[in-house]
Design brief:
binds D-mannonic acid, globular, 21 helices, N-(1-d-carboxylethyl)-l-norvaline Dehydrogenase, domain 2, 2 domains, single chain
Length: 496
């Protein structure tokens, strides 16, 4: 057995062509994009698209500079530094085939908590034409119901007081653009790649609110010199397991400390609103449209809501992975019915999409038994997700006087989820910023179901709807004595 190869530039010459077929001299790639949040998703999606564009079309002006801002990102930062930005994308097809590809589009990396000024200086340089973000739903500090920026969030408040050691994306962006303005440099595009409603508009509004409060003199310059396209991003990317690392090591004799695992499907649709230019992304099948909203709503309310629903219901039934739930008829029948009778009818301007086919495609993707997407990943921070993924369907159906049965059943199951115990008596972990609050109100709901809804600003709009409140109480009282599976069987046969 030859010596184990550690993944880094020096060793790339020894890598088999099948996983690193490079036509490009990496030293010639210039940085054009700075990406904040080197999540697994970013590495399977945007960095993958850039890699393809660099390799297949010799695009040398948009290499990626990665920036991490969170304490929890220290590990990925150190690994990427160790591996010269290289990592492996592991793609698992539904038929069991696994593809490996070394991705080489990340060419610089900075870690904010270690040296915030270095990161700020780097992003202030005009070669960076796009600053993209994957900071997760909770990184935007939005009020869950109103969608407004939460200026009173402790970290946001802290940043507004100590400008030179920022913690939030908004603190960083303010310093970066302050420098660009002072130095007479151009602005750039801020591209959100997170699953939040109107992600570009939202980040713009939040950022401008923050600037108005902290550095109002910068605002007119920002209005002239920045743009914020909305986008829809899609690729299921799971938590990497020790087994994935081992399998790659055993197959190729290469040690990658943190490869990324994803499905073969990938999609990215963006509004064409880039103030300082963009790569020729069309060449790698990225779509540009005038109005992203119909695509984004369909994705958030079908795929992401579908995930959360399988996550919550499946966890209550003791399942651990998405594919286990998606291959259980009772669960999938319920989900299909929800999409068909409550989501699709409440979506608007959908002429350009075949939503029936999209529903089928999404469910087939959920069934892929090889990517092992854990329900704990899906349920993490569900109090930031459910309001985006499920509430809009519920509110639209309520205002249209249409059926809310499935969505409300899900809300009742979500309340039961905060008991932290499945139907077999096994406890599970809940990772959620609002867990203390929601665990407490879920416990109180044993006496009075309405307390789960009323004690929480989360449900603001919904609690004005008596029809919803009554249904919620009905389903929750049923679910207190039925298992989730029994409840689903009754729902699926129209008996509940
Ligand atoms: C998931 C998403 O986190 C979630 O709740 O639904 O991460 C999902 O896998 C991606 O949006 C797929 O594009």
């Amino acid at each position: 057995m030859p010596n184990l190869l550690y993944l880094n530039t020096e060793n790339t010459n020894s890598l088999p062509n099948s996983i690193l077929k490079s036509n490009v001299d990496r030293d010639k790639i210039k940085t054009g994009i700075a990406h904040i949040g080197l999540s697994n998703f970013h590495r399977a999606h945007q960095a993958y698209y850039m890699h393809e564009l660099i390799e297949q079309h010799q695009e040398l002006n948009f290499g990626i500079c990665g920036i991490d801002l969170l304490e929890s990102d220290r590990k990925i930062y150190n690994i990427l530094k160790d591996q010269d930005g290289l990592y492996t994308l592991i793609t698992k097809k539904a038929n069991g085939t696994i593809d490996y590809k070394i991705i080489s589009s990340i060419i610089e990396y900075f870690y904010g908590p270690e040296n915030p000024l270095a990161a700020i200086e780097r992003l202030a340089r005009p070669d960076i034409k796009i600053i993209s973000l994957t900071i997760a739903e909770d990184g935007y500090h939005l009020n869950e119901t109103t969608g407004e920026f939460n200026l009173t969030h402790p970290q946001v408040k802290e940043d507004s007081l100590s400008k030179f050691n920022p913690k939030t994306v908004f603190g960083y962006l303010t310093q970066i653009f302050n420098l660009r303005k002072e130095r007479g440099l151009p602005g750039c595009t801020i591209l959100s790649c997170d699953n939040i409603q109107a992600n570009g508009d939202t980040v713009k509004k939040s950022f401008f609110n923050y600037v108005e409060k902290t550095t109002p003199s910068l605002l007119p310059w920002l209005q002239e010199n920045t743009s914020f396209p909305n986008s829809m991003v899609d690729r299921i990317t799971t938590v990497t397991s020790a087994k994935d690392i081992e399998l790659f090591k055993d197959t190729y004799n290469i040690y990658d400390q943190w490869p990324v695992v994803s499905e073969p499907f990938s999609k990215w649709i963006i509004e064409d609103n880039f103030i300082s230019g963009k790569p020729d992304w069309e060449k790698v099948d990225i779509q540009f449209v005038k109005d992203i909203e119909p695509f984004e709503n369909a994705k958030l309310r079908i795929l992401n809501a579908g995930h959360s629903i399988l996550g919550i219901l499946g966890t209550l039934n003791g399942y651990k992975y998405v594919h286990e739930v998606a291959n259980d008829e009772d669960f999938i029948f319920f989900l299909e019915h929800y999409i068909k009778t409550e989501v699709i009818p409440s979506l608007q301007n959908t002429e350009q999409q075949n939503l029936k086919a999209y529903k089928k495609e999404v469910i087939d993707r959920f069934k892929n038994p090889h990517i092992n997407d854990s329900l704990s990943r899906i349920c993490k921070e569900s109090s930031s997700k459910i309001p985006i993924f499920v509430f809009p369907t519920l509110l639209k159906q309520l205002s249209n006087q249409e059926s809310i049965a499935h969505a409300t059943f899900v809300m009742a199951a979500w309340c039961k989820y905060y008991d932290g115990v499945d139907d077999y008596g096994k406890t599970f972990d809940i990772t959620d910023n609002l867990s203390n609050q929601l665990i407490r109100t879920a416990a109180l709901s044993q006496q009075n179901p309405q307390l789960f809804l009323e004690n929480n600003s989360l449900f603001k709009d919904l609690v004005h709807h008596d029809r919803f409140k009554e249904r919620f109480e009905y389903y929750l009282s049923k679910l207190r004595s039925l298992s989730i599976k029994e409840g689903l069987v009754l729902m699926n046969t129209g008996k509940l």
